[in-house]
Specification:
This protein has 30 helices and six strands. The chain has about 775 residues and is an all-alpha fold. The protein has two domains: about 550 residues, Sodium/glucose cotransporter; about 110 residues, no CATH class. A two-stranded antiparallel sheet has the order 1-2. A two-stranded antiparallel sheet has the order 3-4. A hairpin with a 2-residue loop joins strand 1 and strand 2.
């Protein structure tokens, strides 16, 4: 036991140094090694390699002590895995042949619309077939896939479950827009690579094997078993629903986005089309069907990500191994950034955005008068156009402008405030984007304002990274995946495989962001507006927030500041940006759809199980009671899916922000009580309830009180931020509050004896 503690302690120390230590001193690590700024390379790649080594080493050393003699059951299991390997190999070969066949069909004249439709129909049909084949009403199969999933396939399914629409669609876009660390008002960039991989070290060392040993079905099961009583389970179930629902709305939004692009249907119809693919797996077969669907989806999404980034790297650098060579483009991007900063045309665009921002600022000083003046001017323009018998298109355009005028002062104030902020942001150099390889805003050696900006930027980066890492440990749909392995040892190995499969994409995402930015700066910028590629207009029709261009300085040439890309478009538009065949665009869309569907499957299953199994659990252990819970889970899953689809149709926020918020909620609600319950036997149910309520409540409060709508409704002015921490990292306060309250309440009230069958120092730390 002492040796296990020492091993975990040393590995946690390496994890801390490779993440928080490197980030804190990133500004001092600007030495160039083989073309790479050392701090950038370590944050984008070096830390990920170390995280994989930590998880793999822990699994190997811990499992080595648990090797057992080979039994007949083990031999049967090995034969079962061999059959799975054969089936998987056949699937991969068939998928590659399918891609080659579609590429040849496109070359021979197959229409692009048919390529997209074939991808959508083929992939969703495949997932549906697996869902129908895996249908079950058995509780163990429905909740935990019969605990018979080999580690490598569970790792693949976990990676697909984990790499949601945020990872596949938005992360490369976030890196494109935010560079190393984001802007003073939006931390981001490489924080997602570090946070979403580093969290698996904590998962492997602190939680996954311990939960697997308890033979549970859901995460709230742990709280009910460990702490007793109904309240710990109820609060855990509520928290699981809250953070999973926030997460699933983002996935269904991504489903609608991609399905509408593939088929050309409206966004809302695209949501319903994709939702059918989600439900057919999770509704019919539960975790059993979802697991094997996610394995197939992982292959689709990883090919869809690696093929275009490798293609782009080969086009630009003559080497398809993008993660190894994209550092060469960082220096070129830095030179292009300096060129754009000195460009007179870019300065003209900036001055125009400044003028527009001032116009909105003047309107906001007296909204009622400005609103009436705007209506009067538009009516006068329409009257003059009619008197002069102007072209009907001009009259129609003026009438549309009049119809678009806000209906009342409240709506006008909200819309004009947003427009003013947008123009102020775009009036900044490089369209408000930071220099790509620069760690943190401001300057630690500059004036007082620059030093403060640097401190705030670094503080928010560290806070968000902390929330993403700890939130990873608390995500219910992720934890449940490790219930499906055959043994505790395989659960450890499964975490290592999961991180390996995830890293294949996470190492390529920063490369894609750099290659796309170089392509935009060197080739797209400077083109005549009349010769811009068609894909810009096509994606703008799907959602105007994804991409927009406007000739601000009226020179008919696209300037960098005149192009606005949303985070969700960079990956999806990469094939068209790089001039690749449309079959690659279809593959990327299918990959994004696979990423969103795989995560939505797991999340909806988690929500349905939390409501049916945990909220309405009455302790039935008989077969009839288990079947009733499974059927109730299926019904609840269907209802929640429809509610989430409605919420996604409202386009509530960008995918990356919604997902990041769910990590704060999960980390604050689950992790303090869960980890303390595992490693500190004195922890009581009363303390766990207090810690969960305090952590979750504080996180929700901080997110809500700093939203524009709430502050406006309550008449609050100024900033509601604590220590300058932005709401996306609200979990940093909730997690600390949860730990503090749990410890204090445990110390204040004498704990009852912990049942030996659940958690005790002797049996947990020997796992």
């Amino acid at each position: 036991m002492a040796g296990g503690f020492r091993l975990q302690g040393w590995l946690l120390a390496v994890w801390f140094a490779a993440s928080f230590g490197v980030v804190f001193f990133a500004n001092d690590l600007q030495v160039i090694v083989n073309g790479w700024p050392l701090g950038y390379w370590f944050a984008a790649q070096g830390s990920v390699f170390l995280f994989i080594a930590i998880v793999a080493m822990y699994a190997w050393l811990a499992n080595r002590n648990e090797a057992l003699a080979v039994s007949s059951a083990d031999r049967q299991y090995e034969a079962y895995k061999l059959r799975l390997h054969r089936k998987f190999a056949i699937y991969v070969v068939c998928l590659l042949l399918f891609l080659v066949a579609l590429a040849l069909a496109e070359k021979w004249g197959l229409k692009k619309s048919w390529v997209g439709a074939v991808f959508l129909i083929a992939t969703v049909s495949l997932y549906a077939v697996i869902g129908i084949y895996g249908r079950t009403s058995d509780a163990a199969e429905y909740y935990v896939a019969g605990r018979n999933i080999p580690a490598v396939y569970n790792g693949m399914a976990t990676a697909a479950d984990w790499m949601s629409a945020a990872s596949f669609i938005s992360m490369a876009g976030g890196l494109y827009l935010q560079g190393f660390s984001g802007t003073p008002t939006q931390p981001g960039g490489l924080v997602y690579v570090l946070g979403w991989t580093g969290g698996f070290c904590l998962l492997a060392l602190l939680v996954a094997p311990y939960l697997r040993k308890l033979e549970l079905y859901t995460v709230p099961d742990y709280f009910g078993l460990r702490f007793g009583g109904r309240w710990p389970r109820m609060i855990a179930a509520f928290s699981a629903v809250l953070c999973s629902f926030t997460y699933v709305v983002a996935q269904i939004y991504g489903v609608g986005l991609i399905a509408s692009r593939l088929t050309g249907v409206q966004f809302e119809i695209g949501i319903l089309l994709g939702l059918g693919g989600v439900l057919v797996c999770s509704f019919l077969g539960g975790m059993r069907a979802v697991t094997w669907t996610q394995v197939t989806q992982y292959v689709v999404l990883i090919l869809a990500f690696l093929i275009p980034v490798s293609w782009l790297a080969y086009q630009q650098l003559g080497n398809p191994l993008a993660p190894l060579v994209y550092g060469q483009q960082l220096e070129k991007i830095a030179a292009l950034e300096q060129k754009l900063l000195a460009s007179p045309q870019e300065q003209q665009v900036i001055r125009e955005y400044e003028r527009r921002a001032r116009d909105y600022e003047r309107k906001l000083q007296n909204v009622d008068v400005a609103l009436e003046n705007e209506r009067r001017e538009l009516r006068e323009r329409i009257r003059i156009l009619n008197e002069r018998h102007a072209d009907e298109s001009l009259v129609v355009l003026a009438r549309r402008e009049l119809a678009a005028v806000p209906k009342d002062a409240t709506l006008a104030r909200e819309r004009w405030s947003r427009a003013m902020q947008d123009n102020q942001e775009r009036a900044k150099p490089l369209g408000g984007m930071p220099p790509h390889a620069k760690p943190f805003a401001g300057d630690p050696q500059g004036n007082a304002d620059e030093q403060q900006a640097f401190q705030l930027s670094r503080r928010n980066f560290l806070a968000l990274m902390f929330c993403l890492m700890v939130g990873t440990v608390g995500l219910p749909h992720l934890l449940t995946r490790f219930y499906t392995t055959r043994t505790v040892a395989e659960a450890r190995t499964s975490v290592a495989w999961s991180l390996f499969f995830i890293a294949l994409l996470y190492l390529a995402a920063p490369a894609l962001a750099v290659l796309v930015k170089f392509e935009v700066m060197s080739h797209l910028v400077g083109q005549n507006f009349d010769s811009l590629p068609n894909w810009i207009a096509q994606w703008a029709k799907v959602d105007p927030t994804l991409i927009s261009v406007s000739d601000v300085n009226q020179d008919h040439i696209l300037q960098f500041s005149e192009l606005k890309l949303g985070a969700d478009i960079v990956m999806l538009a990469t094939p068209e940006l790089g001039g690749m065949p449309y079959v690659v665009s279809g593959l990327v869309a299918a990959g994004g759809l696979a990423a969103a569907l795989s995560t939505a499957d797991g999340l909806l299953l988690t929500i349905g199980n939390a409501l049916a199994h945990d909220f309405f659990f009455r302790g039935e252990s008989d077969q009839a009671g288990s079947v009733r819970r499974v059927m109730l889970s299926k019904f609840v899953l269907l209802v929640v899916a429809l509610i989430a689809a409605y919420a996604a149709a409202q386009r509530p926020a960008d995918i990356l922000y919604l997902v990041s918020a769910s990590f704060s909620l999960a980390g604050a609600a689950f992790v303090p009580a869960m980890v303390l319950g595992i490693f500190w036997p004195r922890t009581t149910g009363r303390a766990a309830v207090g810690g969960m309520v305090a952590g979750l409540g504080l996180t929700v409060y901080y997110i809500a009180i700093n939203s524009v709508a709430v502050r406006s409704a309550l008449g609050l002015s100024g900033s509601g931020l604590w220590f300058g921490i932005l709401p996306v990292a609200a979990g940093v306060f909730g997690i600390l509050a949860g730990v503090s309250v749990t410890i204090v309440l445990t110390l204040l009230f004498r704990p009852p004896l912990v049942p030996e069958s659940t958690v005790s120092p002797g049996n947990t730390h020997q796992i």
